[in-house]
């Protein structure tokens, strides 16, 4: 337990302006730029940083010729500062909505594979029931979304856990499977082939998700099982939208959720290659912080997600084409 004197010192001396400065310093690694970002003079920013470090009793940043680098303990403080500011921002936004006659806010992180089906149906139902509820949707890949959840920038997530230890911090409730398909643009030389092999495909350009994403991990595992190297000609892209634009522009291959490319295939912008891949990708689900009750709107939204995920989970992806 921290001593009462230490707690009292922090309570009396720390202000949200101090936390804003710490986050700005972490982003900019420069006192002058950080001061500009929070709209104070540089001498004031330097004094504020000195006050914060004195309150904690240790240095938060190492100063060097190239700028500033967080110390080990400083990184812990910075993580708290980001979470505290995110909570305050969300509180202020929610309060402003209520002041204007609205009914709160819900912020959800979601992988793109869930967006066309489960997420869209649940959000549509929610907004029909609660038209004044402010709904925000963030994220692209599971690794990005789990970090948003950890920093308390979202209420809940539609994603997968991405490391073996995250079950200690988060509760995971499976919802639905996500089928992955290999796609190319309509005029790609492989588009009209009746059969292709993975060994043949790795010779072509690829657009792939970052190495930290579950889909990319699965892709690399399938290459390893086949005794193949990672494609040499690869663009790494964390944005599903950008990936779609890239593969519609030139002759690259991408592995994407079937739900995301469904309309593109129907519209003959993309062609699905005749090779099954990603069968072992685990299903996605509802991810929430442990030991922390959900806000009422988030709790209601979880019920809608459960309702709309069941039919999708029961119907094979190929039957939905």
UniProtKB/TrEMBL annotation:
<dbReference type="Pfam" id="PF03466">
    <property type="entry name" value="LysR_substrate"/>
</dbReference>
<dbReference type="InterPro" id="IPR000847">
    <property type="entry name" value="LysR_HTH_N"/>
</dbReference>
<dbReference type="GO" id="GO:0003700">
    <property type="term" value="F:DNA-binding transcription factor activity"/>
</dbReference>
<keyword id="KW-0804">Transcription</keyword>
<keyword id="KW-0805">Transcription regulation</keyword>
<dbReference type="InterPro" id="IPR036390">
    <property type="entry name" value="WH_DNA-bd_sf"/>
</dbReference>
<protein>
    <submittedName>
        <fullName>LysR family transcriptional regulator</fullName>
    </submittedName>
</protein>
<dbReference type="InterPro" id="IPR036388">
    <property type="entry name" value="WH-like_DNA-bd_sf"/>
</dbReference>
<comment type="similarity">
    <text>Belongs to the LysR transcriptional regulatory family.</text>
</comment>
<dbReference type="GO" id="GO:0003677">
    <property type="term" value="F:DNA binding"/>
</dbReference>
<dbReference type="GO" id="GO:0005829">
    <property type="term" value="C:cytosol"/>
</dbReference>
<dbReference type="InterPro" id="IPR050950">
    <property type="entry name" value="HTH-type_LysR_regulators"/>
</dbReference>
<dbReference type="Pfam" id="PF00126">
    <property type="entry name" value="HTH_1"/>
</dbReference>
<keyword id="KW-0238">DNA-binding</keyword>
<feature type="domain" description="HTH lysR-type">
    <location>
        <begin position="14"/>
        <end position="71"/>
    </location>
</feature>
<dbReference type="InterPro" id="IPR005119">
    <property type="entry name" value="LysR_subst-bd"/>
</dbReference>
<dbReference type="InterPro" id="IPR037405">
    <property type="entry name" value="GbpR_PBP2"/>
</dbReference>
